[in-house]
Predict the 3D structure of the following.
Amino acid sequence: MALSWEQRAHAAQASLFLGEAVSNGAVFPIWIDDHHFWYERSGDDGPEYAIVDAAAGQRQMTLTRRALAAALADLLDVPIDRHELVLSNMRFNLAESVLAFSAYGEAYAYDWLAQTLNAAEKTADRNWLPSPDGGHALLLAGDNLQLRDLATGAERSLTTDGTPEYAYAVPGAALRQLNRSHRVELPEAVWSPDGRWILTLQTDERHVLPLSLAEYAPGSGVRPVIHSNQTSLPEDPKVTEFRMIAIEVSTGRQIEARYPRLVAVRMNATVFGSGMAWWSADSRIAYFIDVERGEQKAHVVAFDVATGSTRIVFSEESATYVEVSVNVYTKALIAPLPATNELVWYSERSGRGHLYLYDLVTGALRCAITAGDWQVREVLRIDAGRREIFFLAAGIAPTESPYVTKPCVASLDGAMRVLAAAPGDHVVWRPGGMAMMLKTLEGMDGEAISGLSPSGDYFVETVSSVTELPRTWLRGRDGREILLLETAKGDLPEGWQDPEPVECLAADGLTKTYGLLFKPLGREDGARYPLIDLIYGGPQLHNVPHASFANGDIGSGTYIDAVHLASLGAYVLVLDGRGTANREQAFRTASYRAAHTASNLEDHIAAIHQLAQANGQIDLDRIGITGFSGGGYMTAHAALRFGDFFKVAVAGGGNYDQALFWHSWGERYHGAYDAEHYAAQAAKTYAEGLSGKLMLVHGMMDAGCHPAGLFQLVQSLIEADKDVDLVLLPRGGHDWQGYGLRRRWAYFVSHLFGETPPPLKSFDRPLEHTMKRFVASRAKPKKVEA
């Protein structure tokens, strides 16, 4: 029996909480010492914290959040819901059976044997950068730096001349604005091994113009509020710059590197945020990597902190752009070996992403550590003593997709082996990775989460596929299985259908592309159904999930969104076309200097025709498309340039013109600014081509993809006398919000299905719950009045 639209709407809402229907799909280990780690899991009594003894191969104990919430409620004399409680800065002391943590801005210590909770002195904070000996911490104080004595709590200023436009140890204003919700302000700096020096920077934006945001619906008052948001654009002659300095801790004396100022690159990150700064073993030489504006050249620079002199150790150039990692959002895949003056360096010089070993004294290349028709995806650990590197490799399993990863170890002399080759995608968490961003909002320290033990003797891996729920193992450094930690269990909705992995040919008829095809909810034999292309058109990511939605990786969001759209009764395709990441260099850079071809809409059209030829239930006369951010950008291009094929398009939060986006993005992917060249990628250039239905959804407080790009596109559509539907979110940032998702769903009902959508409320989402918990965790809970 066919489902009603009310039933489909109910399924659409439930699909957004699909991740909560599976327990223990993701394990995020935080190591206590070389042999013990803890992680949060779902137990019979709700959330709990498990401590594992890796050497014994046993789960040592669990501590329930119910017990902690009850103890905290008794101490504060307030009711506390264990499901809403956010704990941060958690540190287990196994010798004393004490868990130290922070809640509601205060520090506590819980003795789990005595079951007692006491207020404690705050000795650690996510915003503090501790010294090597643990005696001091560096922290931000407005636009300056302060040093805190961790024994006495005394603080003193290290700098005093910082200003908002010339601040110490922070990235540029545009990146700070985008990351404001995370509220983690760790100084951008590195301590020298002997604790005498701090390598840091001063961010100069005195010449950077604002790209202001107008808050038309402020939380209080009626006057709109203007938020200055200094942002460097591709046309700007000068952009955000960094003055590299070393500060002597005892005196505050500064030594500036005698080197041209660095510019913001790689999504406006600093060398510290990108993991591209470190010290020599003797604390005399600081190193940093200078990626030039446009990102076609990168230089490893040695900085003598005694004199300020510098030298370029070695350089790398590219005809497109130099990649120092496979993901521009995460830290570079480099690893210094201070004891031997060596550097492990990531490069695509062979056409594939591999690792190379350099001599930091001479700048000479010693050897290629890895090689072959596969990619290095993550560098997880360098074991200097064993001279081994632990990493994740993609495309190394010949019978699986080139995106699927396996854990490997390689000698720095070149010999390598796969540690776990079971079918499926293998996740071993790296500190500071993209998936850690959400964990930060849940109170965890994204820099402390690690799949590898500090000694490298153990690793924790989660294995899954798009058709199999995750299982998580503890393994020894040789890959041997020690303990099956978790087997995910799911209560999946009635009528659940796994998506189908698909392999297609690109529009060139030669290149393989990979995707997932999700089936319509309530699909019946003999019926024909629309297809919605769920696209991401950014060259810096791949969009197709290759693991379970429950494994905690960033692909979970795409997977769940596809299920949400399939509730309409449509096929949903997720595909990575040419010009997207995590493939060979030629595939990835196919969109270089042509940002509007990332994921290549022609490849999507070719794939949909191939799928329809194989599956007669796909109706080629009813093809829709949607996406957010880079996906919103490409959705608009689909409607404007290929409207004869994509009949209905819903674009969210698009960066519709790279000339209005960060200079570091536009120059990296579309090249140096030239008005005519940049016009080729701007969606507004193609306004005359709109023929189908297009709805644009945008947050007016979007600091990433500025609303100016949206309105300039809309103005071009007005001038072309084209009809466009517009949904503005006055307080919305870079997000659909539940209201935008509701309007998207109803738009497809109306225009792709030709039906009347049922009465709907804005869709509820887990993200809103997480954000509310995070905000609530900042303030002390109030007592209930009698």
Remarks:
- The CA atoms of residues 478 and 535 lie 39 Å apart.
- The radius of gyration is 26 Å.
- The first strand starts at residue 22 and ends at 23.
